[in-house]
């Protein structure tokens, strides 16, 4: 199963991806996570990405496309993957199309988790991430039962540097200008499904799985 998860910042892509990983045991490929890891490790990629991320801007296509191509060529992607947060521009979508063609892979579905902008600022500013396992919580909408620590692994929760109100506003306008046009692109390819991301997490998940038309255990 080759799934592409789309949606504005805070729509719930990472949350849904974690549930898909658990059920379908396929790798979760998040360009945001890859960049954050590189920043943490202080690699050349991290140094390049950091200023764009902090400003709520997109990392340049040439850089982003390169890391995704490398990742998709790995053996664990052969049986499926969940792409989260890539592509975000038409150029990235076209590069992805070429890469998948060369690998002989057809996307199963492009699932867009749609949440109105008005709901996204509080989603993003209330987000807390586990330092150890990367799981996302929300101080109000999806709190950990262990307070400042992760429900799943006990790791410490932290707030992403770019999850401030000012940066989110930038990220939303970048989304409108650069990523929104991908909806028409994938509609034309007959791959597009939209899910109402304002529903509770489990309801959103039901919609996502339904759109994949797969047999479940
Ligand atoms: P969110 O989960 O809020 O949508 P991500 O974790 O996906 O955010 O991305 C965080 C930041 O990483 C983005 O604001 C951008 O700077 C960078 N980034 C992630 N994916 C891409 C991409 N496909 N193209 C360019 N930049 C990206
Ligand atoms: P994205 O990866 O699209 O940026 P996340 O999965 O990190 O989004 O979710 C953003 C925030 O919203 C997190 O704090 C998460 O716990 C919360 N969240 C995710 N899905 C829902 C939902 N359906 N309803 C309410 N809050 C949600
Ligand atoms: Zn954890």
Short description:
The protein has helices spanning 13-24, 31-41, 44-55, 61-72, 90-103, 117-125, 165-179, 182-188, 201-212; strands spanning 2-6, 28-30, 81-84, 109-114, 127-130, 136-138, 157-158, 192-196.
How many strands, which pairing sense, and closed or not: the largest β-sheet?
5 strands, parallel
| Spatial extent as radius of gyration | 16 Å
What is the architecture of the domain at 2-26 and 79-116 and 176-212 at the second tier of CATH?
A: 3-Layer(aba) Sandwich
Overall residue-averaged pLDDT value: 96
CATH topology of the domain at 2-26 and 79-116 and 176-212: Rossmann fold
Distance between the termini: 15 Å
What is the level 1 CATH name of the domain at 2-26 and 79-116 and 176-212? Alpha Beta
Task: Write the H/E string, N to C.
Answer: EHEHHHEHEHEEEHHEH
Describe the overall structure.
- With 217 residues, this protein is α/β, with parallel strands linked by helices.
- The protein has a domain at 2-26 and 79-116 and 176-212: Rossmann fold (3-Layer(aba) Sandwich).
- Helices cover 48% and strands 15% of the residues.
- It is built from 9 helices and 8 strands.
- It has helices spanning 13-24, 31-41, 44-55, 61-72, 90-103, 117-125, 165-179, 182-188, 201-212; strands spanning 2-6, 28-30, 81-84, 109-114, 127-130, 136-138, 157-158, 192-196.
- The chain has a 5-stranded parallel sheet. Strands 6-5-7 form a 3-stranded antiparallel sheet.
- A hairpin with a 5-residue loop joins strand 5 (127-130) and strand 6.
- Helix 1 (13-24) crosses helix 9, helix 4 packs parallel to helix 5 and helix 6 crosses helix 7 (165-179).
- The longest helix has 15 residues, at 165-179.
- The radius of gyration is 16 Å and the shape is globular.
- The model has no long low-confidence stretch (mean pLDDT 96).
- One adenosine-5'-diphosphate (ADP) binds at residues 7, 9-15, 123, 126-127, 136-138, 141-142, 197, 200-201, 204.
């Amino acid at each position: 199963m080759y799934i592409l998860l789309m949606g504005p910042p805070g729509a719930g892509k990472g949350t849904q991806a974690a549930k898909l990983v658990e059920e379908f045991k396929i790798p979760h490929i998040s360009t945001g996570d890859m960049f954050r890891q590189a920043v943490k490790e202080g690699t050349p990629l991290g140094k390049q990405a950091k200023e764009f991320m902090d400003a709520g801007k997109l990392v340049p296509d040439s850089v982003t496309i390169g890391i995704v191509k490398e990742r998709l060529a790995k053996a664990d992607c052969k049986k499926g993957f969940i792409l989260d947060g890539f592509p975000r521009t038409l150029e990235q979508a076209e590069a992805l199309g070429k890469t998948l063609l060369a690998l002989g892979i057809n996307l199963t579905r492009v699932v867009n988790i749609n949440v109105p902008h008005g709901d996204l600022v509080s989603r993003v500013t209330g987000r807390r991430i586990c330092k150890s396992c990367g799981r996302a919580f929300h101080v109000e909408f999806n709190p950990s039962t262990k307070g400042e620590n992760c429900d799943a692994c006990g790791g410490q929760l932290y707030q992403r540097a770019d999850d401030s109100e000012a940066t989110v506003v930038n990220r939303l306008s970048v989304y409108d200008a650069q990523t929104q046009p991908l909806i028409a692109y994938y509609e034309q390819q007959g791959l597009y499904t939209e899910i109402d991301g304002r529903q509770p997490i489990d309801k959103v998940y039901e919609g996502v799985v339904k759109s994949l038309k797969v047999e479940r255990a």
